[in-house]
Amino acid sequence: MKFTDGTYKSVTVHSMVAAAWHGERPLGLDVHHIDHDKTNNAACNLVYMSRSRNVIESKIEAMSRGTIIAWCAMAVGQTVAVPQDYKLKRLADRVRAISKALGRQFEYCAMSGTVTRTA
């Protein structure tokens, strides 16, 4: 992108979409993809969040890779089914780690194969 002063700066698509739909990015915040799909630059999939929170989200996504659970977007009381092809072996441990990282409570039910946000 070329600025009026003649300088150039590369700008990512998700940054341009977020700025157009959500306003200029506040100082110190990153653009975060809610569904963790870096190719999904839809305005409804983008939010501004702190760098530290974005890093936590990335770690959480890596811990739950293979699921389609959007941990941060879950409302209290919301239940989601864990995809059947997901490795359930250590999911209870992952749910505890994600709860601690987010400061929220999630519960995994092995019988029904679901995760519920409880607080």
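That was protein one. Protein two is written in the same sequence-then-structure order:
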Amino acid sequence: MVKYCENCGHELDEEVKFCPECGTENGPIKRKCPNCGATVEGAVNFCDECGCDMNSPVKTEKTNYLEKYRIPILIVAIIAIIIVTFAAASFFSDIAVGSKNIEIDKFRFSIPANFNQTSESIGEEDYGGTSQFYRNGDETIQFWIQDVESTARGNSIMSDLGGERVDRYGHTGYFQKFTDGTYVYSFVDGNKICHIFASHDYLYDKIELL
């Protein structure tokens, strides 16, 4: 029976004790039982632990990865289905709702068609200008156009208002959230400041400046 040098890997006959290539002393052949895994020394035909035929091929079990990871795969699949379902519902909902154009002062906007104009306000009439309020259930959008003496004055007011600088609708304006959970995005256009109030931040993606 053939064995190999433990040091250099040279092929050796079973009875050879020292490797003719590197001189390393080599012990008896050591094999693992294909059945129980016990270490068996020498050129024996049967494992002295379980009696397995040492000359039989080693049996390896194939891992059934589908069965092993079945539950994680199902969880991921369910989550993916939920995400796709909500995304599709939102997409087709927007298509079904459509949009409508509105005019306020010198601005024209496109908003979802299911928003209807109401007489509500947030008190901006105390500061002058023009406003329009739209509602769809608990969702609200309000436009308030404030008159200013000049662009410079408008930028000064915007700076005082503060907030996060955001590019939206072709303008660089300021975006902030109020303590009551509503939002406002404001930008200057000539001698006008356009304030867009919304009950939810995602509504800004449904508004277009025409």
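The CA atoms of residues 186 and 195 lie 4 Å apart. Keep this in mind for the problem set.
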